[in-house]
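Re: the multi-chain job from yesterday

Posting the exact lines I submitted so nobody has to dig through the queue logs.
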Amino acid sequence: MNKELEHKFVTELQDNQNIVHKVCTLYTNDKDSHKDLFQEITIQLWKAYPKFRGEAKFSTWMYRVALNTAITLYRKSKRRIATQDYESVIFKIKADEYDETEEQQLKLMYKAVRQLGDIDKALVFMYLEDKNYTEIAETLGITEVNARVKMNRIKTKLRTILNP
Amino acid sequence: MTDELDLLKRDWQKNEANLPKLSYSEIHKMIWKKSSSIVKWILIISILEFVLPQLLYLLPPMKDGIAFYENIGISKYLLVASIISYVVAIYFIFQFYKRFKEISVLEDARNLMKKIIKTRRTVKHWIIFSLSSIMVTIIIMVIGVFLSDNIADAFPHLREGLQNISPEKLRLTLMLSIGGFGSFLVLFMGGVYFLLYGLLLRKLKKNYRELKQLEI
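And the result, structure tokens for all chains:
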């Protein structure tokens, strides 16, 4: 039984690992921390898995656990050596696909998002993942109206970071 | 701005292909690794906080202390105090266990943070209680020394050496050293505790405040 559960879990996580990687990309600055956070999220997902009864999609359920781990449970490890432009490793912006201004703009945007606080990042992440405000509000434990207000504030904040 | 965020959204979704891909066995290995979440740290530190003060009583000087308490006539007060403190400790351990069990990663972020803070608050109250009971013990001891008729009797094996010291001077020295040592112990333990938790929960508290502020 346990082996079966284990197999099911690992397979589902493997299929949906992109969600976790994206959370790690937003919340960490180097490869080691990325791996660390990925591992902690995996452990938390596995611990909570017996309670997952399939009432939601596995991926929907993952968002909550992954974000909770990143925002609340994860303790940043000491090794925070600034590695060479980490985001360019994950988000390889292919020059031929964009014109220069767009590429430049994207680079600045990614940089600006990384400078946001943990909660702001969570909102931006869910926005980028195409989640609606109801889902964003439910995941964070705030009202939908407040989620919208917060998102507008983040947009203003990003604007200030981009055009100081 | 909205346009820029939408531009980012398009790029974000396109970039999925560039994300790392972990194999089945790599993920499988991870599920058996030990968690290092703050909830686990709170559990470890709390257990230490419940256990360590009890270990103090196993130290030889503490055992000698029991004879000393008897000699200065405060042992029955200290016995009552220690029974009370055990009852209170059991209550706190029960409360802590209950709150700890309530913490679930499946809650929404705000509730999860609230429950962690509540669990930690239980430990904080325990610490305040146990530091104050150390303080009360120290005060009882100082009063015991103050009221004791012949303080040198409290140290049977040192009686000869103490003969040259005037009882008043001995009494004062003893009161000052017990009081000084007690205050140092309480301040030190309190300092370590608040520093430890302060560092551990700094991020969590900041995030919780941010979510809570939204509701105002």
